[in-house]
Amino acid sequence: MSPSFLRINPGHSNDADHPATKFRYLLKSTAPDDRLQKAARDGKLKAFAKVRAELQRCFDQQEVDEFLREFPQAWLRLDRINFMASDAARFREYDRKRFSGGMVNGVLHFFRQAVHNNIPVPEFLSADYSLLNADLGKVYDADVVPQVFSLRKYTFTGGRRNKFWGMGASLTSTADSLGTSPIHRAISVMENLMGIHPSSPPPD
Q1: CA dist list (Å): 27 to 22, 40, 69, 70, 92
Q2: What is the rounded CA–CA span in Å between residue 88 and residue 161?
Q3: 175: which strand partners?
Q4: Non-local CB neighbours of 127 within 8 Å, separated by 6+ positions
Q5: What whole-number distance in Å separates Cα of residue 9 and Cα of residue 31?
Q6: Which residue in 96, 173, 179, 201 has a CA-CA distance of 20 to 30 Å to 82?
């Protein structure tokens, strides 16, 4: 969790407003409405059951789209997927087909389905499926994927491309311009999955 998020403290608010502010910014990236502020001031966001009920209400009323889109983007730094562009001479299809957009959408859809279906957290690491469209299906030799641009669930065998961390966006964002980078990938897993921040490398 970002320290700046934990320290959200608008100058015009009081202590009773803080739970509502954090709750609303987490789910909708905006200030809490009057109803949520009143609930916080009445102490209704102090008990776990009350918070869970409010969270369920937000899901039932489809008020969590911002969270489902922005959280995985920030968690996996998907905005940096093309930070180190692939070698255009070696990977011509990557830019021509704009694979990065499909890869990112695959992660976002996976995360959305995981939340809506309330899958166990370990399934992020053990799932035998991914989400592919026709172009990504060709890259992964998944010929049974329909020839459409929408994402479809595809079950892999062999354990290479499945799981949350085996999806194209996760792999590409931790690679360099020519191929995979075990160091980048290890750092990503340590920081994003295990909460471990490795020390800086020694000087030359």
Answers
A1: 9, 16, 10, 9, 39
A2: 23
A3: 180
A4: 119, 162, 163, 164
A5: 11
A6: 201
- Which backbone phi and psi does 152 adopt, to 5 degrees? -130, 150
Residue 89 to residue 1: CA distance in whole angstroms = 39
Residues 184, 3: Cα–Cα separation, whole Å: 23
d(CA 179, CA 168): 13
Instruction: List, for residues 72-125, the tens digit of each pLDDT value.
Output: 888 888 887 777 666 667 776 666 566 778 888 888 999 998 888 888 988 888
Q: Is there a contact between 174 and 184 (Cβ–Cβ < 8 Å)?
A: yes
- In degrees to the nearest 10, what's the CA dihedral of 139, 152, 116, 125? -30
Q: What 3-state DSSP class applies to 198?
A: coil
Q: What is the pLDDT of residue 13?
A: 55
Using the structure block, give the residue that is written with the tokens 């370990």: 122
Residue 4 has what pLDDT? 53
Q: Which two tokens stand for residue 203?
A: 């000087």
What is the model's pTM? Answer: 0.74
Q: Which of 124, 108, 87 is nearest to 169 (CA)?
A: 108
Long-range contacts of 133-138 (CB under 8 A, 24+ apart): 133/102, 133/106, 135/97, 135/99, 135/102, 136/99, 136/102, 136/103, 136/106, 136/168
